[in-house]
Amino acid sequence: METHPDIVDMRARHETAERATSTPQGQAVGTLAFLTGIYLAASPWITGFNGLPTLAVNNLLVGLAYALLMSGGFGRAYERTHGMAWGACALGAWTIIAPWVVAGDVSTTKTITNNVITGAVALLLALAASAAARAAESSRMHRGAAATRSSWTHS
C-alpha cells in the first residue's frame, strides 16, 4: 500500500506544500494577505465610512472571505492555494471597483482611496501566492520527471 502511485503522489504533494509554505516568502505573503483581508473587513470603521452600509457590508464580507482564502482557511495543501489565489485575485479586483458598482452613491474620496489601495495590495498578494504555488508545483513536477529519467537509466 505504501508504494501505491496515488499514495506516493499525495506524499510528494504534501512535501511540496510544506516546502513552499515554510519559506520566508511564502509565510510573508500569507501573513500580509491575512492582514490585508482583516483590514478590508474593518476598513469602514477604521476610515469612517461605516455610514455607507452597502459598501461597509461589502468590505466586511469580502475582507473576511479574502482572509480565509489566503490564510489557507479552507485547506492547508499549498496546491489548493494556487486555485484559491485566483479567487482572491477576483476579490481584490472587486474591491477596487466596488465603490462605483455597489448600490447607492458610495464613491467618496475616502471609499475610493481605501478600496483602490487595499484592492491593489490584495490583488498583488494573491498573484504572488499564485506564482509561488505554481513555481512549487512545477519544481515538484521537474523533480518527478528527473527521478523518472534517473530510474530509467538505472534499470
How big is the Rg? 20 Å
Q: Distance between the terminal alpha carbons, to the nearest Å? A: 23 Å
How much β-strand is present in the residues? under 5%
Average residue pLDDT = 80
| Total DSSP E strands | 0
Order of secondary-structure elements? HHHHH
Which residue ranges are poorly predicted, with pLDDT under 50 across at least 5 consecutive positions?
A: none
Shape: elongated
Q: How many distinct helices?
A: 5
Helix content: over 70%
Structural class: mainly alpha
**Strand count, sense and closure of the main sheet?**
none
In short:
The chain has 155 residues and is mostly helical.
What does this structure look like?
Helix content is 83%, strand content 0%. The chain has helices at 5-21, 24-47, 53-70, 78-101, 109-154. The radius of gyration is 20 Å and the shape is elongated.
Features:
elongated, mainly alpha, 155 residues, 5 helices, single chain
Topology summary:
Blueprint: H1 5-21, H2 24-47, H3 53-70, H4 78-101, H5 109-154
